[in-house]
Amino acid sequence: MTEGASVEEIERSRLAGHYACHGMALFPHDAVGNAWTAAYIQAKGDPVADLHEDMAAEQKARATYEHLIRMTDDPGVKDTLQFLRQREVVHFQRFGEVLRKVFEYQDSKQFY
Ligand SMILES: [Fe+2]
């Protein structure tokens, strides 16, 4: 999205802060500048808890893509975001299928 952009164009965009700190480098952060860290990922070592965490992450990603889709009128960006949004829906469904299998396994073994 920034390929070929001048510094003046970047300054007029919402990317001025990113450019000031990171130039044109990739540096994952959220919309208000919070850097991505591994602390965003939770793992309990319990398949039921961890699968619910995974499913929540997929739904949050879907919601974020929907917010971004509403914020753009660029057809190429919108198409890409809609594709990515659909992938999150599929990921959520796959995690849900695994969760059902975990419950079936636990029930079959009298887990508790
Ligand atoms: Fe995903």
Summed up, the domain count is 2
Structure annotation, total helices: 4
CATH level-4 homologous superfamily of the largest domain: Ferritin, core subunit, four-helix bundle
Amount of helix: 55-70%
Structural class: mainly alpha
Taken as a percent bin, the fraction of beta residues is under 5%
The profile of the biggest β sheet is: none
**Assembly category:** single chain
Question: Please, could you describe this protein's structure?
Answer:
Helix content is 64%, strand content 0%. Helix 3 runs antiparallel to helix 4. The chain has two domains: 40 residues, no CATH class; 71 residues, Ferritin (Up-down Bundle). It is elongated and about 65 Å long. The chain is mostly helical. It binds fe (ii) ion (FE2).
Task: Write the SSE topology.
Elements (H helix, E strand, L loop, with lengths): L6 H6 L3 H7 L24 H25 L3 H34 L4
Helix pairs in contact: 3-4
Bound molecules: fe (ii) ion.
Summarize the structure.
The chain is mostly helical. The protein is built from four helices and no strands. The relative contact order is 0.09.
Highlighted features:
binds fe (ii) ion; mainly alpha; 4 helices; 112 residues
